[in-house]
Design a protein that fits this description.
Elements lengths: L1 H13 L11 H20 L2 H11 L3 H17 L1 H11 L1 H19 L5 H30 L4 H43 L1 H7 L11 H6 L4 H13 L7 H17 L1 H12 L4 H27 L5 H22 L5 H30 L4 H30 L3 H18 L36 H21 L2 H14 L17
Helix pairs in contact: 2-7, 2-8, 2-9, 3-8, 3-13, 4-7, 4-17, 5-6, 5-7, 5-17, 6-7, 6-8, 6-9, 7-8, 8-14, 8-16, 12-16, 12-17, 12-18, 13-14, 14-16, 15-16, 15-18, 17-18, 19-20
Amino acid sequence: VMGKHEEEQQRQQSCKVVEAPDGGWGWVVVGALFMISALVFGLIRSLGVFFVAFVQYFEETAQAVSWITSIGVAMQQLLSPIGTAACNAYGARPVIMLGGFLSGLGLILASQATTLTHLYLTMGIISGSGWALVFTPGVASVMQYFSTRRSLAMGLGFTGVGLSSFAFSPLFQYLVQTYTWRGALLILGGLSFNMVACGALIRPLGPHKVMEKADSSSKANGCGSFFSRVCDYFELSLLSHRGFLTYSLAVTFFNAGYFIPYVHLVAHSRLIGFSEYQAAFVISATGMTDIVGRVVSGWTSDLHRIRTVHLLTTWTGLVGLFLLLLPVCSLGGNYVGLLVVSLAYGFCAGAMTPLVFAVVPQIVGMERMLGALGLLQLIESVGGLLGAPFSGWLRDLTGSYTSSFVVAGGFLILGTIITATLPNFFSRTNPPPHAPKKKAKNECSEDGLLKQTFSSDCDKEKPQNREVATYSDKESGRASYHNHTTEPGSEAEHIPLTSDRTEAEGPGD
């Protein structure tokens, strides 16, 4: 009897809802995301400094060299579902640490490359795979720790991208000139190993284990259990979610145009007659306004005066507009015009980034958010893979980057239009997200990085226990006392402090 009682207590303990602390150690996790975003996308943004060196050293076309960045970005997004599935099973800490190791290893091996194919394999595939295991789990960890201040926390974490863009471009230019591109890549590989330490800082709020549901059902049907486990880890049911698919298509177009300026803006500045450091300063200045845009965007979103999706479409539309204006304002060697438009572009591009992720829970709900982030990055990898090479092909075809920036702006505007077709987009309030499928009575929801436990069985056990206790108290004449002292205290354990709803109500953000 005692063994059953202890087992029941452990089961109820594992089924409690994990609350978002909205602070505390969460700010350390935000700091870890700051470093991760700097060493992933800050580095990717600044690879344009290596672009000219690679073209000259390997004597290849702009299109061929553009595939280095595109493969890396595509791998980061293509393998994100693998990272999120691993987090659902084992937690974010070991996954991020492994990803940090792969990121540094790829860059160190790239420093010994003798052909572009070697760079495709090292910087593209190996480092890109590491970025996949680092970035999305880091984003999801911050989302787990924050609820009411989630957008602000995301914006602060993503300021690492803007700050590193400001610092990395002149730094990389100095490293390339001092140590050549091989020595520069070797140093960057050492910097990337710092993400291993960032992963060690991720402290899980709850246990991370293989799903109990799949383990219990494996005794009856091994194949069916394995398929069910895969579907739950990867959240494959979202592939039939209309809102999620619409949003994924929009983000794919965002992704196709977003990275083009960071790949070709330095080369464009050099082509129209500016010096190496003038070209690098454009990227650095863009990074500074990017920082401001991320913080302002997160703070504005957390005021809840305007729906997050409406703010997102405002920023993405402005990004597309400034990309269209960028080649026009730099005609005739107008450095001031190029700098002003680049600053405006950087602010809006920084403002849209945290909102792209913040909208996801509003569409699918918090308990499916981690899997949704992985699938979203998988789908948008098509845009990241094809965007930069396509713009490089246009440069080889036309002899300038004007058409490349025009097409990039068109991608952003098209994605904005698609976002406006989301269900209930023109509503002034957030509609309830599409509820996930119900769990069976005797099943506890799985524990993952963001899989909050919403089990109908666990929710019903304590009320049943109270009914039994009340019944026994009635027999001894103490029913009234029990109802007024015990029941409210028990009920308080099940009231979540955050805005996230239980499964019976449907997920929310």
